[in-house]
Specification:
Blueprint (H helix, E strand, L loop, with lengths): L1 E3 L7 E8 L2 E8 L3 E7 L2 E8 L1 E6 L3 E5 L3 E4 L5 E4 L5 E8 L1 H6 L10 E4 L2 H16 L4 H21 L6 H13 L6 H8 L3 H12 L3 H16 L6 H8 L4 H12 L3 H8 L2
Parallel strand pairs: 1-4
Antiparallel strand pairs: 2-3, 3-10, 4-9, 5-8, 5-10, 6-7, 6-9, 8-11
Helix pairs in contact: 2-3, 2-7, 7-8, 8-9
Length: 267
Amino acid sequence: MKTLYHGEYFGQTNEIVNLDGLTITDTEYTHPYVDWHYHENAYFTFLLQGNMTEGNKKETYECSAGTLLYHHWEDPHYNIKPDIFTRGFHIEISQRWFDQFDFQKNKAEGSFNIQDPSLKLLIYKIFKENQGKDNAFELAVNQLLLNLFSQFTIHKDKIEKKPIWVNHINEILHESFTEKLSLAELSTMVNIHPIHLSRDFQKYFHCNLGEYLRKLKLNKSLELLTQKTSLTDIAMECGFADQSHFIRCFKENIGVTPLKYRNFLRK
């Protein structure tokens, strides 16, 4: 089985940024099929554009723009790519980085398709920071990455401890985030009291219901921004009140306007 070392990915890597213990790469995937392989370091893959299929020993993921995957070090997987332009943003984390911040990488063993919109927005922010690279760039990336790992491992630790309603409401919100939802309706659908839902939602999702819904809308909008869809149509499709509301929420959470983000993707 092939091993890929520091900064190596299958395809055409157009940018490599080396930080202390981190390697950030922006790669166009050019191989229709990549056989089983693994990487010497742990890393995140964030699919910026296109589609691909990834399989490991436990699961197979159908990945589109906006998919966030985490791979533990030396975790075997394979990839299949259709005949379309596909581009990935990678953050490779060496043992030196884990040691530097006194973080045990075994807290995040295995490979995962990360669905949490809060964690995806943190990766978008790292991608945005990578476009600027001012003198606070490395500090900002480390802070965002530590925040991501902290939330990621807390979420992973709670997987077996959370009540049934947590998965149920998460499925409902992912399927219905563009619709107008009320607390009473959601409480009835998951069969718990509205007070219980209001109180415990924050415990499992690290934000309130309204914030979580906005994050789901923003993640969908970031996927649509890779296409030629107008901002007005994106706002409507994602369930924002109007284009102005969409632009305001986007800038508050990502730090740039939707058009500026779209321009980042064209670089």
